[in-house]
Structure formats: structure tokens, C-alpha cells
Amino acid sequence: MTTTAAHPVHTLLHDKVVMSERFQVEPLCGAGPPRDNDACRVGAMRRIAATQLRLCGLDALIDEAMLVVSELLTNALVHSGTSEVFLDMAIRKGFLVITVIDGMPGAAKLKRAKEDAESGRGLELVAAVAEENGGTWGTRDAGAETWCRIELPAAEGQS
């Protein structure tokens, strides 16, 4: 695992904001994929998240975090009807906590997608990533906020 001299993993066990971004989106009316501009914003947020994690020396979590960011943001765009999305990534008590707030009540629910379904697996993926990385996921504020916790990797030389 690579760490930077400024932020070795063992110093990141304390609370630290990794990134905090708010952006406007066009509300969707009904089911369907996000609009092209909003889908591009999801990609931009993924790249910003990866860069911020790299700057914190958390390269080992980039793939997992990018997947969670994509799925939570896309879920907010597709299912909430919101016009503004807030993405927060922070280190809290030994975990990377990724939070997406769409401000629209309606709890995200884990559903099993049909085998031939082309979508509907986002929260399944988030749950799997969280579980595989010693974390969990959930919703708060009547579903207006969805979050995922991923355990930070042990510092080199620690077990």
C-alpha cells in the first residue's frame, strides 16, 4: 500500500473531511437513466473522489470508493426527483464514510434485481462493497441521505 508522507494511513484514524461537493441536477420525471449532463457530473465526482483519496494516501480504497460514489449518486439522480445533490467523503473513527444527500424523503431499499434486468443492482453492489470491507450502509433522515462506511486499511506494520 502506498501512503504519502503528509497523510500516512495511521494518522487518518481521526476525523477528516476528504471532499464535500454540492451540485445542481435536472430532476427526472419518472424512471430512466440520468440526463447526459448529470451522468457526466457523476463521472466528474468519481474522478475527484479518486484524486482526493490518492492525496490522503488511501489508494487502496479508490476502486471501492469510486463504485460506491457512482452507485449512490446515480441512485439519487434516478430515484429521488431532486434538483441538488450533496456528496461528502470523510474519515470517521477508522472508516471512510461516503454520504450522498438528495434531500428527498424516501428510503433507499435493497432489492434483488431479476437476472435479466439491465439495472437495479446499485445498492446490492454498495452493500457487497461495504460488507467485503468491514463496513455497512444505510439511510438517514427518512431516506434523504444514503451512506456507506468502508473500513480503512491497517497502517503498514499493524495487524
Automatic annotation (TrEMBL):
Keyword Thylakoid attached: no
Keywords of this entry: ATP-binding, Kinase, Nucleotide-binding, Serine/threonine-protein kinase, Transferase
MF GO annotations: ATP binding
Keyword Transferase among record annotations: yes
Listed InterPro entries: Anti-sigma-factor_SerPK, HATPase_C_sf, HATPase_dom
Residue ranges constituting the Histidine kinase/HSP90-like ATPase domain according to the UniProt record: 41-132
Annotated protein name in UniProt: ATP-binding protein
